Each structure stands twice: as structure tokens, then as C-alpha cells.
Amino acid sequence: MPDQDELDQDEILKLSREVEAAIAGAASLEELEKARVAALGKKGSVSAMLATLGRMSPEQRKVAGPRINGLKKSIAAMIEERQAVLGEQELARRLAREKVDVTLPLPPAPLARGRIHPISQVIDEITAIFSDMGFSIAEGPDIETDHYNFTALNFPEGHPAREMHDTFFFNPDEKGERRLLRTHTSPVQIRTMESQRPPIRIIIPGRTYRCDSDQTHTPMFHQVEGLVIDKSSHIGQMRWVLEEFLKAFFEVDDVSTRFRPHFFPFTEPSMEVDVQCDRSASEVRIGQGNDWMEILGCGMVHPNVLRNGGLDPDVYQGFAWGIGIDRLAMLKYGMPDLRAFFDADRRWLDHYGFRPLDIPTLFGGLGS
Ligand code: DAH
Q1: What CA–CA distances, in Å, run from 1 to 5, 6, 7, 8, 62?
Q2: Measured from the CA of 184, which atom of ligand 1 is nearest?
């Protein structure tokens, strides 16, 4: 009959072989980890065997203790060895699987794929042209008061010109005042006069709103306002500035314009400007042909407007204009439907958009 030591020896040997087989049979690092936990983990087989030491007599423990601890160490060493082998195998498999074909074409980077919206592009173009003429940019709020949008701009109370603006009004506040979405960029004329002394040379690009929607009108649209005020600014300068702008913007050497008398409450005299164009092709061509197209409104700033802006009309005079940016963009880049501008359709933007690094400059080209 085997004595206790031999029996222990047998059991240790048996366990040792079992664990060895499990380690050798582990085909992946994951399986190896399972084998490790099964042997050396808190509830593992070797740990369970170590726990039996406590129940042994001191003599038995003297013999069995070092053996079981030896087994634990040798298992740990085997696991480490196996880990190295499996690790290498797994790395080799991954390298084979994740092989990169460096001859494949690269997908375009975000900077190459992204597109600048034509409105942003046209605002940048307009800014480049007027900056070159010494203008700076001014901005104002989209939500305006009746005072800045109408009254200060010389729209009398109850005047039909107010109704013509199809204004979006907010509900009246506690004082009964109704704020509104500005119907034009002209209120920034007053805000600028209030905040800076002449000479004033600014353009005001921005969003404007009117309750209107069809192929060439959207409830939100964009205008660029111009304002020049000094002691001797005159209508001849206005004509030069506007014609230089039109030539630069449409990238043509010459453009004929027609200044027609018109009415705006904030200018006197007021004019609408038509540009020479050719409508015989599918797209309108500016600067050639013998047709006319209305493109902007302008005039000499009304004395009441100067006064409302805190300037003395006996000292200062000036001129102003307003242009629809969206329409300029449609004309220049041949986009037929304004509503598509605001549909956020990526296919449209891919087609009509501009590359982000092609920044419009007068020397490098505006819309290239
Ligand atoms: N505010 C006008 C509009 O929206 C456009 C305009 C016309 C602006 C003449 C001006 C101007 O500054 O002088 O219809």
C-alpha cells in the first residue's frame, strides 16, 4: 500500500500532468489564460491543493509544501513560455491579416472632400473686392427692433413701404414692442453711424428675412449693404465703386450699367442699377449682349437717416447700396433654384461647392 507521501506525490504528479496538458493544448492566448486561471486562480486546482497544507501534520507539510510550491512555480514558468510562443503566433497571424497594400490609392482627406457653400464663397469674394478698395466689414443682429429696421431708416409709420417688406414679427413684449427678423441689412447703417465717426467706408454682409418663398425667394436670404459717409462723398464715386465691384465680381473687363430712378425711404435720390447682360444662352452672361438685368438698389443717404444716426446732414453726406448675395451667386455660378441653397443636400454641395483651400483673392482669382 502506498504511504501518504507517495499518494501526495501521485496526486501532485497527476495534477501536474493535467495542467501541463491544458497549457500545451491552449491554442490561443485566451485559452491559455483560461488554463492559468483554472490552475493558479483563487479557485484553481493548484490553489486548492495548496489549501490542503493547512490540514496536514507538520511532518507531512514539510514534505508536501515544497512540492506543491514547486509545482506552482513550474506551472507559472510553463505558462510564461507558452505565452511567448502563442504571442508570437498571434502577432504573425495579425501581420498577415492586416497587411497594407501600399499601392492602393488613398481615400481623399477631409480637407479635400469638404466643400465651401457658394454663399460663403461669394461673401468671401465680395469681401476681397471691397477690402481692396479700403472698406471694412460691419455686422449687426438678425433680430432687430422696429426702430432700426424701419423708423430710423425714414420709413414713416403706416407707410406702404413697411408692408412691402413681408416682415416676420415676434410677439409683442411687456411694453408692447414687437421685435422682428431684419428684412434688410440697412439697420446696420444706423448702428454704424451711432458707433463710429466718419469717414465711414463699410460693407455689411448678413442674413435677412422675409415671408416669401419660390424659385428665386427664400424666407432667409443674404444681402450685402454698402455705406460711405464723408464730407464730400458723391454720386460719381458711388457709380465708380459699384461698377468696379461688378467688373471684379463677374470677372469681366467691362460692364455697362444703367442707373434708373427708384424709391427707397432711406436714400434721396434713390436708384436701381441694371447690368448689361446676354440672355440668349442657357445661362445669363453679364458684361455682354444688349439686355438689362436689375442687380442692386442704391442712392445718396437721406438727410433724415444721417440725423437719426447722430450725424449733421449739413456737414456729412454719403451713399449706400444693397445687393442680394444669393442672386449674385446664382448669376455667377449658374445655379437655377435658390431653394436648393438651403436644402443641405451633399450632392448639390459636391457639385456647386468650392474647395476649402482655394481662398478668393484679387491676385489669385476669385472664383477659380
Ligand atoms: N434695403 C434695400 C432692400 O432690402 C436695399 C437697398 C437699397 C439698400 C438702396 C441700400 C440702398 O442701402 O441705398 O430692398
Answers
A1: 11, 10, 10, 13, 22
A2: 4
Contact 183, 210 (CB under 8 A): yes
Classify residue 197 by burial, with Cβ atoms within 10 Å: 0-12, 13-18, 19+.
exposed
How far apart, in Å, are the Cα atoms of 316 and each of 69, 159, 187, 201, 210? 102, 27, 19, 13, 32
> What CATH superfamily is the domain 116-352?
Bira Bifunctional Protein; Domain 2 (3.30.930.10)
Q: What is the pLDDT of residue 115?
A: 93
Q: What is the pLDDT of residue 54?
A: 87
pTM (whole model) above 0.90: no
Pocket flag, ligand 1, residue 186 (CB < 6 Å): yes
Residues linked to residue 270 through DSSP beta bridges, in sequence order: 262, 299
3-state SS assignment for residue 207: strand
Mutate to test the pocket of ligand 1, among 180, 207, 225, 325 (most ligand atoms within 8 A of CB): 225
Q: Is the CB of 299 under 6 A from ligand 1?
A: yes
pLDDT of residue 5: 57
- What are the residue boundaries of the structural domains of the chain, listed by start? 4-97, 116-352
Cell numbers describing residue 131: 477690402
Consecutive H or E run containing 206: strand 200-209
Calpha distance 276→68 (Å, rounded): 102
